[in-house]
Here is the input.
Amino acid sequence: MISLHQVSKKYETPAGVFSALSNFDLEINAGEFVGVVGKSGSGKSTLLNMIAGIDRPSSGTVSVAGTPIHEFTENQLAAWRGRNVGFVFQFFQLLPTLTVAENVMLPMDFGKTFPLRERRKRAVALLEQVGVGRHADKLPATLSGGEQQRVAIARALANEPPLVLADEPTGNLDTTTAADILALFRNLASQGRTVVIATHEADIARVIDRRIEISDGSLVSSP
Here is the structure.
């Protein structure tokens, strides 16, 4: 499903060149639930951004489902990402002036993946799936952090992506809520989606299929 070969990513900073990833090789199978662990600044977010096509490698190749996304133009990447990737952020990134249901409908509006008349029904069904259907017509600010993260997961699933990526999705949640969110990701993987999450969670081992450890932009272990 995911193949990175000799991927490096360098950024120009006032202090000089910073290497976020260095000669990174990784293979992830379809339907696998992978946890990416490492300290802050280790390269976890950069790795997810490479897989999602949010950022480009300085060198090396990135392929998803056989598609060499590193060769795409920005427009091609945006179109591909909208149909193939669901991304869940640590800080939810919900639009505050839209209702919960409207937030979930937004990717469908951009991608035109579902007929207009079906979008709200689908959004509410996804919200029900993650346990917050009763909040469909509320604004995000009225929900708890855990509820907002569930909405963000529903939004990530809006266009039925085969790949779901999550960057520290439990970083702002209490232990019990974090466990519930990890269980949701486990369920997505059980349905056949490929799920990759970057996390600090100590209990991640009990829900994932494989643990990948990163340090200073390099792969430390990937059993």
User: Anything to note?
Assistant: The mean pLDDT is 91. The first strand starts at residue 2 and ends at 13. Residues 175-190 form the longest helix (16 residues). The radius of gyration is 17 Å.
